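Deliverable D4.2, example record:
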Amino acid sequence: MPLTYYLSLVTFRLPSYTITNMEKEKTERLHSKLTKEAQQFKKEFADRLLKLVTSGFGLVAALAWNELIKEFIKIYIQPFFGLSSGFVSLLIYALFVTFLAVFVTYQLSKIVKSEGKED
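Output generated by the structure prediction step:
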């Protein structure tokens, strides 16, 4: 008997519905994966956008406080030290801003730690 006869006996044929079902399952898995990635992207995008907007408002608030502190020193501190109060005024300003930055950062880090413990 020729070799082709034996090969035809060994050849496996899958029914067409099995191939169709396999393609459908593959498509469903791909769709599920893409949906999950799209949801994750949407969440990450919203999270980063929130951080960006918050940072922008934080900068605006910091600039407003900067101007307020400068005016306070100019109106209330400089008159006590006379005309040569430039260095002293800048020193007081720098110390005040440093204290404020450390205080706010410390308070925010405490809030973040307490939020982390609740999760």
